[in-house]
């Protein structure tokens, strides 16, 4: 756990969140400021700052569970869905704990803003 990390505090229960799934070291929560009718955040319980900081080697199970969970939650929406991993300042990342956005329930735009 990273002591000043918002999502670590959600994982530990210190800050409340609507948890929609928890298994295999992965947790999925509802985004507090949804940008679509469905907006979930899927993250490893373990603190990893972002996808660029992830080592992958030795953590293949974690990445598999992360993406498997995100895809399964997205697939609950018959019309399709979008997965987003904002990374770093230019990537629009505001919480430095790796998370996958699951967006669904409306037509998505491209290119993103
Ligand atoms: P990022 O901008 O890092 O890609 O995504 C961070 C997301 O976390 C944003 O969509 C934001 O709405 C969400 N968020 C920020 N604070 C909280 C919170 O306290 N609880 C929940 N559930 N989501 C949060
Ligand atoms: Zn964290």
Structural features, described:
The protein has helices spanning 6-12, 60-74; strands spanning 19-23, 26-30, 38-44, 81-84, 100-104. The chain has a five-stranded antiparallel beta sheet with strand order 1-2-3-5-4, with helices on one face. The longest helix has 15 residues, at 60-74. It is α+β, with helices and mostly antiparallel strands and 113 residues long. The chain has one domain (6-104): HIT-like (HIT family, subunit A, 2-Layer Sandwich), CATH 3.30.428. A hairpin with a 2-residue loop joins strand 1 and strand 2. It contains two helices and five strands. It is globular and about 35 Å long. The chain starts with 5 loop residues before the first helix and ends in a 9-residue tail after the last strand. The structure holds guanosine-5'-monophosphate and zinc ion. Zinc ion (ZN) binds next to helix 1.
